[in-house]
Amino acid sequence: MDLIKKISLFVKDNVDHVQDKYLTIYEDVSKINKDIGMLFANIHDIINFYANDFNARIGSHFNAGDSRDYLKVIRILSSFDAMVKDSEFEFCLDENYKDVLKNAEPHLKMNGGSDLPVDLPRFIIKEYDPILFLKSDNKFRKHNQKSFELILIGGGSYANVYKYKDEDYNQYFAYKKLKKNSSEKEIIRFRQEYNIMKKCENPYLLKVYKYFDEENSYNMEFCNYTLASYIKENNTKISKETRLSILSQFLSGIEYIHSVNLSHRDLSYNNILIKLDQFQNPFVKISDFGLVKDDTQKLTSPDSSIKGTFIDPCLQSFKDYNFKNEIYAIAFIIIFILYGRQNPKKDDCVYPVIEKCLSSNLDDRYDSLQDLKSDLNKYLASF
Q: What pLDDT, on a 0 to 100 scale, did the predictor assign at position 144?
C-alpha cells in the first residue's frame, strides 16, 4: 500500500470532527494533502481544548479523561511520525508544545487522573498560528559550503522561523523562510520586509544579515523569547526596574521606526522579542515587519483587508493606518510590560495614558509619541 493511502486510512481511524477554525489554520497543509491538514487541525484542536486547564493544574491534579486524550494525542503523533519519516510529509511540532507534552507524558495516567509536578513547563497557547509544520526542508546552506540543521521555533500563515547554531561564531542565529507555493505578492512583501529591516539601524530592532534568493529566506539574530513567553515565564520575578527598562527600550524602538516614516501595523506580544545577555538581562528587539507601512512603497492595495493583532475599531481602511492607530496597539503592550496582563484597570497608575490611547475619538488620542512618553513618565512616578 502506498504512503498516500496509508495516511488516508490513518486519518480516518484517528480523526473525528474538527472545528473550522483549526482547519483554516492548516489550509496551506491541506493544499498539499487534505488528510494531513485535517490530522494537524484535529491534534491542535484537542491540545488547545485542555491547554488552559493543564496550565492551571500544574502542581495539582489533572482529570483522567483529559489525561487519556493527551496520551492519545502523543500516541497519534508518534505513530504518524514513524509512518512519514524520511518522506515528503515528515513534520515537526512547535518547540513549546513538544516540550510540554514530552515532560508531561511520564506523569499522565489512563485512570484516576494525573498529578502534575509543579516544575512542568506550561503551554504558550497558539490560537491562530499553526503548531504543526511539514518539514519540507530542514537545512540551509551558507555560501554554498556549509549546511546547518534547522530547528523549528515558530511559524505563521506565510513563513516559518527556525534556529541554527553556526560553529564559526559559536552562537545561534534565526532563519526565516517563506513557505512554498507563496504568491508573487507574498514574495515581494517578504523581500520588502527584509530590505526595510536591513536598512534600519537601531539596537531595539531585530538585526537581519543576508537574504537567500534561491530559498526566499534570510537569517537574523536569535532571541531567547517573545515578550509573551518571557513575561509568562518570569512574571512574578521581574523587578520594577526591569519592567521600566523593557518599556523604555520598546518605546525607543517605536520612536525610531516612526522617525524613518514607517508604521509597524502589527505590534503584538509575539512580534516584540527578548534577547538575554550573558547576565540574563533582557533587551528588546522589535521584529516582523511584514505589514509595515512605508510611504515610499505602494504595495498595499486600496481595498486591502485590515490585518494585525490589535485591530483598532476606529480604523476604516488599512491603507489609512497612521500613528493614532499605532498607539492603540502600543497601549496594550505598555500594560502587558508593566503588569503582565492584557487588560488595563482603572487603578493602574498609567490608566489615564492608556485611556487616551484607546479613545474611540481619534481626535482625543495623542498626536505624537513624545506627548505620550511625557505623560507616561509623569504617571510612572507612582509605579
A: 47
